[in-house]
Write a structure and sequence with these properties.
Number of strands: 10
CATH class of the largest domain: Mainly Alpha
Helix content: 40-55%
Distance between the termini: 43 Å
Largest sheet: 5 strands, antiparallel
Number of helices: 13
CATH architecture of the largest domain: Orthogonal Bundle
Order of helices and strands: HEEHHHHHHHEEHHEEHEEEHEH
CATH topology of the largest domain: Triger factor/SurA peptide-binding fold
Shape: elongated
CATH superfamily of the largest domain: Porin chaperone SurA, peptide-binding domain
Strand content: 5-15%
Radius of gyration: 25 Å
Mean pLDDT: 82
Amino acid sequence: MYFNETIFASAMRYLIFSFLCLSFLFTWPACSSKTGSSQAVVITVGDRSITVRDIERIVDMTSLENGIPKEVIWSSIDSLADRIVHDCLIFEYGRDKGITLSDIELERAMQDIVKDYPGSSFEETLLNICIDYDEWKERFREQLLIKKIVKERTKSLAPISYHAIKSCYQESKEDFWHPPRVKLMHIVSNTRSEAEAVLARLGAGEDMAEVVKEQSIYSGLQGDHDMAWATRDMLPPPLSDIVFSIQVGEISSIIQTPYGFHITKVLKREPKGRKGLLEVMGEIENRLLGEAIERHYTVWLKELRDNYPVTVNYTLLDKMRAINEGN
C-alpha cells in the first residue's frame, strides 16, 4: 500500500530521471562503438561514436516508450545530444576505472522488473510496442552500469547532518503541509460472503488487529495494519469518503470498491496541518542528498569533458532536426 525508496535510489532518480525526454525506465540512450561504420558520425566521445542511425533509433525508441511525438523530441535534439554525451563520458570513466556490471547483477535487476509478468508476457509486452527484447536488455544493462558508476563516484560524499536537515525544515515551512489524513486498519476480501463472515467475528467481539494478523490463513482475504498516514486521494471511493466520515475507533460496515469488499477501522484522523520534523527527516535527507549529488555530478561532468575529447556535429544535428520535425 505504501512504498519507501532508499536514500540513494531517491537521490539518483532526482538526478538522472529529470531529463525531459528520458524519464521512463527504458529510454537511456545506447552509446555504441561504431567507429568503422559508414554512417555519418554525429557525436564522438573518446573512442565512442554515435551515428545518424543511432540518433534516429534513440528518437524512435524514446517516442515509442514515452508516447512523446517524434517532432517534440527532434525540437529538443540538442538536449538529447548533451544527455548522450554525458552518458558516454560516464561509460568512458567507468571503463578506465574498471567498473563493470556482472551478469549476476544484471539478472537480479531484470528479475525485479519481470517478476510481475507471468511466463513470457514481458517480452510480449515489449514486442507490442515494437521493442526487441535483446535490445532492451542491452540498454537496461547500460542504465544499470551508469547508476553503478555514478554511485561509485559519489559514495564518498559526506552524509547529510541533522543540523542541515533541521535548517531545511525551518526554512521551508510551506513544503511540509499535509491534507486531511487518517491512519486505519482494513481487511479486504474477494467476496461479500467472506466479508460478512469477518464482520460477524468483529461484531462478536474479536479484535480487528488479531483478525488482520490472521489474514494469511483465509483464502482471498487481505489485511493491512500499516499505520502509515493515508490521504483521501490514496484510497478508492467510496472507501475514501467513509474513512473521513465515521467516528475514530468505529468499525465500518462492508464497503465495496473495484478492489473488493472492505471492512475498515479508523485509528486516528488529522485535519490539514504541518508535518513534524521526525516525519519528514527522510524526505529532507533525500532532497539534500539529491542536491549534493547533482552539484557533484555537474562538476564531475566538466572534469570528464576536460579529460575525454568530445565532438558534436551540431550542423548535422540541425539538418536532421529540420528534416524530421515536420514528419
